[in-house]
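Check my protein:
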Amino acid sequence: RVHGDSTRFKIPMASFDTTVRVLLAGLSIVGLLLSLYSVHVEHRFEASPMTYQPLCNVDEHISCTDVFSSEYSRMAKMVLDLPSGHPLDQPNAVYGALHYVVLFVLVLSKAKRLALVAAVFAMAGSFWLFYVLIFILQVVCLICLGIHIVNSLLLLLTIAAVFGRATPKVKTN
């Protein structure tokens, strides 16, 4: 290797794009699974609140059911001032699951900019819900934290997909 030659460490752009797309698709699936588990826990807890103890309930400070049974678990109802039972009055996790499916499709169709818009909106929701979790409800929800981490990684990767380059353009003579 010639001194100063860094070609050994350059990643071809096609490989970079493929790697980022695979990571985005994988994280979308993880987010979908976390959202579906959230929906499952919420429905099971609503059906039998006295007997159902999900794995995500560790103690009085680490409890997903405290979060899922709060008024903040249905943000569409709060934001849109929906009556109970309205078709759009769904748990946040249902909207999350739809988001991850849409993001997965956008990633597969190589719609990077639309995926970035979706990731930005998801991260905005995550910021708000993280604030609610820590400062209003004052409880830790392991599933919620997992979803916030997934959303953060999805945002970073979509930024890399849209604006990042694996190798700089080199002017050749």
